[in-house]
Amino acid sequence: xxxxxxxxxxxxxxxxxxxxxxxxxxxxxxxxxxxxxxxxxxxxxxxxxxxxxxxxxxxxxxxxxxxxxxxxxxxxxxxxxxxxxxxxxxxxxxxxxxxxxxxxxxxxxxxxxxxxxxxxxxxxxxxxxxxxxxxxxxxxxxxxxxxxxxxxxxxxxxxxxxxxxxxxxxxxxxxxxxxxxxxxxxxxxxxxxxxxxxxxxxxxxxxxxxxxxxxxxxxxxxxxxxxxxxxxxxxxxxxxxxxx
Length: 244
Prior knowledge:
The protein is α+β, with helices and mostly antiparallel strands. The chain has helices at residues 2-19, 26-41, 96-102, 142-149, 185-192; strands at 49-51, 60-65, 68-76, 118-122, 135-140, 159-165, 168-176, 203-212, 215-224, 239-240. It folds into two domains: 1-78, no CATH class; 110-244, HIT family, subunit A (2-Layer Sandwich), CATH 3.30.428. It is globular, with a radius of gyration of 18 Å.
């Protein structure tokens, strides 16, 4: 009977998630499905992983995108619309990039380097497809890797890159570190990138593991667009989600 109920539960929850697949709330529905599944059975289906924290803001899931099975995303279970949410910059704000980085093995194939070229990205509110915060996980696209390797990146402050990545100009900073536990890209970008804090809904951020001058750390890329910017930067476009 228990097995039957589990199968039935999976069928019903998956079906309910499928009903929202074409809407901007599809991700929220899938996450709720995963959360219910976890509470009832201890499994994460249809997500890859569910982690519950003592604080609701610290609970999250890692899953394949509903309409793109090769793409892996990290998303908090709490209803946070996106990068523009003021809770991301408040005191004691959760470090979602650090959480996502710690789960990178779920997105990067076994046998590949789990640091160099591993990339995380969040899109701006002005060009996302889902109104639930999510961080894309994968590997830096080869041509972006080659371009970044030839470009000077400051380890002192955010500076505009001298080249365009996927036809867009980014601000960049290299932060030497062994992990992201003490680095919150949302706050760094809001505080240091020109005009970012004025309109966080127009900000897109990429975080890439790498090395510069013999030091391991993270390249943090950001583009700050206004409400009517006339351009459409998306850090997600820098990622090869299949790590092919």
